Every structure is written in structure tokens, then in C-alpha cells.
Amino acid sequence: MRLALVALAFALLPIAVLPAQEVKAVEPEYASVFYFLREGQLADLERQTPKQVTKGKNFLIVIDGEKSTVRLSANESMQFVVRVTENYDKAVSTLQLFRFESQNGKRQFLLKISDLLSNRDSLGMRVEKYGNSSLKAVPSAQLAPGEYCISRTTIPNGYCFGVDAAGK
Amino acid sequence: MREVNLPESERYSCSMLLMCAAILLGLVLVASARTQDGAIPGEPEALSVLYYLDGSAKLIPLEFQLVHKNQKLHGLTGGENMYSVRGQKSPERIKAADKMNFVVRLKGSQDPVEAIQLFHLDVVGGSRVLPIDNFDALGRVSKMTIPAFIDFNAAIFGPSSFKLIPIQVLAPGEYCFLMKTGNELPKAVPGFCFGIDGP
User: Fold this and answer.
1) Contact B15 A90 (CB under 8 A)
2) Residues of B in contact with A1 (CB under 8 A)
């Protein structure tokens, strides 16, 4: 009977190990696609490919629609996750977060060409490793109500969202 | 509860049976956990070469061409710049109803979203073209005509390869993946082309 108990313990071992493996951070399946992290789960952001219009010595980044279809509340914990292929240091410097102005049915952001490579126009973010191959970005300051897109200097897409005043 | 006293031999048989069942259960659970991780077929051997991943997980190389930037003049009024691909149709054909999965192995830690773009090409005369811009008689760009690229997701396929999945359904027509070379509009760019056939 002791043998049977040992056998039963052996049988239960994989059952005990499997849930432990599932506790790890849920990472995005796709590279360079941003998600909003809400209670440990990944929520989609609005995926957009902005148009770039040359305006003098600057670029005007334009997205159709005055407001993002994805709405966050100003009092939510703002955490964004992206899977990256590069090493941490290289990937961190590519992250960017812009606030857009809404007018005439569009969202617009004027990007200075001189600041394009230095990424100086981006709002500040604290970035840390998330899981094995992802980064978690948290805005350095609370985001005021408005329209935003998070992206990387290396990709053509922006992942957009709107922040509404708390309680709205 | 009444305790049943089994003879020694029967108790041994019971124990052995339980142990076998336990090992079997353990193996099944471990095997199922591995399957959930996803069995990965072989990665491409060549770097920066695009393949179509067919329904049987076989990698089929796409049509490779060095795609050149050409100019077509419109008499004295200017002309147009375009990338041209030889031949009206790609010899690599995919049925519109098939899954659109492509695989590429990249050097180092390159991000495929950064390194590759997918375009739809127009068939003009005997070739496939990707218009870039129109220019006037003085050579100034009068109109940008380069079409928007087709957005795709890039999932991990192997240790150094990715599966590229267009996020929209590809309509019948001619397509090419173009490898970015660093320049905005280089004179020649490696292209991996295929055609989609309707039902």
C-alpha cells in the first residue's frame, strides 16, 4: 500500500507543477505590438498606421478620428506591455509616447525632424523587463485626459488610447 | 467505514496497477503540457529569406527578385518613379482560402516589423509595379503614390525565426515582401513575391 501512495504522489506531481508554470507574466504573442496591462491581463489598444505629412521642417503625424475607440480612466494604473526582439537597453531607447491634439475629425501630432532620432518629443516613461522577452512601460507622470499613442521609433504603427477624466 | 483485508498478493497487484496508472497519467500530463507549448517544425536554414508556411507545415520559398527602382518618363511633363518586378505574375501561387502564414529567419535580434514590409503590386504591361511618386518637368516630386504597406503580426516561430501573419485578408493579386535596407528608397531592394488566386 505504501508503494501505491508513492505512486499517487508521483501522479500528482505534474498537476502541482503545471499551475506553477502558469503564474508567469502573460507576454504578448506578437513582436512590437503594445497592450494595456489590466489586472495581469493584456488588453488590446487601437492599432493605427498614422499618415505622415511634411510640414516645413517638421512631420505632422495624422490619425483619422478625433477620439480613440479604446478609453482608459485617468485614475487607472497605466501600464503598457510590448514584446521585443532586441536586448533590453536597445529596445528601451525606442519606446515613445505621444499626446495628440484632436481637431477636424483627426488626431494630430507635430513631430520635429530634429527630435526624430533623439526621441525627445516623447513623454517620459519608466521601463522595466516584463517576463522573458517583453518590456513594461509606465508613464512617468499621470496622463491628463486626452488622446495618446504609444509606439517605437522602429515601427510604423501606433497603439492608441484616450484617457477620460475619472468618473466619466 | 469497514476496512477490507486483502491477501498480500492481491494487495501487491493493486499497488502495481495504481503505480502503472500513475505513471501513465504523469506522462499524459507532461506530454499535453509540451503540446500546449507548440511543436515547432524546422526553422529556415537561410537568413533573410521568406517562405510560405503551407497547411502541412512545409516551408515553400517565395519568388526572389532584386526589385529595382525605375523611372517612366511622360514626355516633357515629367514622369513617375516605381519599383518593378519582372513578370506579370509570380510563379508562387497561394489560394485565397488558404492560411496566410509566412516564415523568415533573421540575423541577431532583428525585429521583422522593422526589417520587412509587405506591399500589393499593380500589374502593368508585362511586369508588377509598386508606384513611388510622380515628378514634374523640373524633376520635383509632384505626388507621392507609394501605397500603404500591408500590416502584419510577427509571432515567434523558432529561436531565430518569426511567423508573419497579415492582419487583413489578402485579396487575389500580386504581393511582395521587401527587405528594408536602411535607405528610404534604395535603387534596388531584395523582394520575396507571391500571388494570391481567387476561388
Assistant:
1) no
2) 11, 15
- Domain residue limits, chain B: 1-39, 50-197
Q: Does B153 touch chain A (CB under 8 A)?
A: yes
B7: left (phi over 0), alpha (psi -120 to 50) or beta: beta
- Exposed (0-12), middle (13-18) or buried (19+): which is A57, by Cβ within 10 Å? exposed
Position with higher pLDDT, B173 vs A53: B173
Residue A46 contacts residue A68 (beta carbons within 8 Å): yes
Total domains present in chain A: 1
Q: Is residue A15 part of a domain?
A: no
If phi over 0 gives left and psi between -120 and 50 gives alpha, with beta otherwise, what is residue B157?
alpha
| Segment among A38-47, A121-130, B13-22, B84-93 with least mean pLDDT | B13-22
CB atoms B153 and A47 under 8 Å: no
Per-residue confidence band for A3, with pLDDT thresholds at 50, 70 and 90: low
Q: Name residue B117's beta-bridge partners.
A: B178
Q: Are B174 and B123 in contact (CB under 8 A)?
A: yes
From CA A35, how far away is CA A44, in angstroms rounded? 5
Domain that holds residue A78: 26-164
Chain A contact set for B111 (CB, 8 A):
31-32, 84-86, 154-155
Q: Please name the residue of chain A whose CA is at the shortest distance from the CA of residue B20.
A: A7
pLDDT of residue B30: 37
Do the domain assignments include residue A20? no
The pTM for the full model equals: 0.78
A24 falls in which pLDDT band (50, 70, 90)?
A: confident
Quick one: closest CA in B to A83, which residue? B155
Please say if the pLDDT value at position A157 is more than 80: yes
